[in-house]
Amino acid sequence: MSILAGEAIYLFMYAAFKNGDHVIVHSPGYQSLAEVARSVGCDISPWMAREENGWALDLDELKKLVRPNTKGIVINTPHNPTGYLMSRADFDALNKFAQENNLLLFSDEVYRESEYDLADRLPAACDYGEHAVSLGVTSKTYGLAGLRIGWVATKNKTIYQNMASLKDYTTICNSAPSEFLAEVAMRHRVKLAERNLEIIKDNLTIVDDLFSRHPALFTWTRPKAGSMGFPKLLKGDVEDFCDDLVLKAGVLLLPGTMYDESNNHFRLGLGRKNLPQGVERLEEYLSKK
């Protein structure tokens, strides 16, 4: 099903859940993954990723979050904003747990194929069975945000048909030119992903150097996939820092509070070619503090 990413989250939540259902959601994370379920009337429990664990999710903690009315689990891997990538063993165990407990698994995979090490790539969750729905887009790994095209894939015919029926009452269909261009792009997706990964890896080296020069101010768990990281500001308030930085240096960082995270982290984008210029401006800003 060709679909917008945000639209897919909306359609899945309204097709799969109802008022009073309990849903476990990977946190911190992309706001819609929790908020759309809340709009349905679901009770949300955050499945917390913690930096002291390398932003990994704890499967034992997941088991403790399950209630009699739990209907689903929502995850995002590779993860926005931390760049965390679940291990194959944990991903296998998660899918097995969902199947054994009759839970739906919504797997946000919009950064899939942007792994820094190809050996770390996970299967799509939808390939594990009818319990899972996978979400993909052209905008992240392939750098084609302007097409506004994504997709959902699942073996669950009921969920798929319910989503398709809801789509008929909302957007009906996507732009035909965008769908055509997206199809062309997917035929060349390996080349597109390689191009963008080269930019990200070059930028990672620059950011590593930046943080090595300012160990008293920044720390981070280096990402394993995707186009962002989630460093921590060690001095001051992260919202004040980000606000002052964009006003005085023109460098935009996203404070972790936008992800309901209050431990002074901020999201740093790694996918732009002009990141070196941004780092130069950041260094100039820091030199004046």
Q: What do you see in this structure?
A:
By secondary structure, the protein is an alpha/beta fold. It has 2 domains: 2-187, Aspartate Aminotransferase, domain 2; 190-287, Aspartate Aminotransferase, domain 1. Helix content is 40%, strand content 17%. It has helices at residues 5-16, 32-40, 59-65, 88-100, 157-168, 176-187, 189-213, 238-249, 275-287; strands at 2-3, 22-27, 43-48, 70-76, 104-108, 132-137, 150-154, 218-219, 228-229, 232-233, 254-255, 266-269. Strand 4 (70-76), helix 4 and strand 5 (104-108) form a beta-alpha-beta unit. Helix 1 (5-16) runs parallel beside helix 2, helix 1 crosses helix 5 (157-168) and helix 7 packs parallel to helix 9. The longest helix is centred in the last third of the chain and has 25 residues, at 189-213. The protein is globular. The chain starts with a strand and ends with a helix.
> Under CATH, the topology of the largest domain is which?
Aspartate Aminotransferase, domain 2
Rg of Cα set: 19 Å
Question: Could you give the distance between the termini?
Answer: 51 Å
Poorly predicted runs = none
Global structural class? alpha/beta
Give a count of the beta strands, DSSP E runs of length 2 or more.
Answer: 12
Mean pLDDT: 96
Give me a quick take on this structure.
The chain is of the alpha/beta class and 289 residues long. The protein is built from nine helices and twelve strands.
Keywords:
single chain, 289 residues, alpha/beta, Aspartate Aminotransferase, domain 2, Aspartate Aminotransferase, domain 1, 2 domains, seven-stranded mixed β-sheet, globular
